[in-house]
Structures are given as C-alpha cells and as structure tokens.
Amino acid sequence: MSVETRAIEAGPVLCLFRRFVGLPCPACGLTRALVAAGSGDVQQSLRFHPLGLPIAFVALATLAMWPFRYVPAVSSHIAPVLEHRAALYRLAIAALFSVWAARLSRKSERHLLVPDRRWRR
C-alpha cells in the first residue's frame, strides 16, 4: 500500500526548527522524499530532497546486512566498513548541510522546501 505524496504535502508542519526560526532545516523534505520513494515516485522524491533516495538505499542496505554480522564469512567483509563509520557519518552530515546551503541559496527552490506555503524571513 502506498501513500499519496499529496497527502504528505498537505500535512502539518512538524519541524521545530522551521516553527521557531522560520527557515526549513537541513532535513526538511526528507520524510516526503522517503514516502515518495516508497511509493515508487523517484522524480518526486528527488524534488522533495535530493538525499532521500541515498538515505533510503543506505537504510535498506543496513537492514539487509544486519543479520549477517554474526556470520563469520560475511562479517569479515562488513567489519572494514564499520571501522570507518565516523568518517561516513561526517560525510553524510557534510552532504546534508551542503544540500541545505545550496537549496537555501537558490530562490527558485525555496518553494520546494516549503511547498504550498509562503517563504518567511
């Protein structure tokens, strides 16, 4: 069963950062992007947030690998990746803030961050 992305767009604003500061946070649009990706609408997912699909892929890959961490033949291949978790987290955070800065700097994309609502300063 898929969720209509229009239902997500019309929902209430839950982001505390956006409520208090008036600007969208770095993660604004990720929930909508993940819902659109789960519904199979790749183009809409990328429109809501460019990192939605990579985050969905990493989450699914992590869940798929989770049971194999106890299998010695497989865990030896997973261990090197896990050793670099801190670097991967830093890379993910840098990507999130880079996308946020790029989206905030482009006035033409501000409506994508906050669909159907006026941009507040």
Q: Care to describe what's here?
A:
The chain is mainly α and 121 residues long. The chain has one domain (5-113). The protein contains eight helices and no strands. The protein has helices spanning 5-9, 16-21, 30-38, 42-48, 52-65, 72-83, 85-105, 110-113. Helix 3 runs antiparallel to helix 4 (42-48). The chain is globular. The N and C termini lie far apart (38 Å).
Helicity, in percent? 55-70%
Low-confidence stretches: 115-121
Radius of gyration: 17 Å
| Domain module tally | 1
Largest sheet: none
Question: How do you describe this structure in short?
Answer:
With 121 residues, the protein is mainly alpha-helical. The protein has one domain. The chain has eight helices and no strands.
SSE blueprint:
Elements: H1 5-9, H2 16-21, H3 30-38, H4 42-48, H5 52-65, H6 72-83, H7 85-105, H8 110-113
Helix pairs in contact: 3-4, 3-5
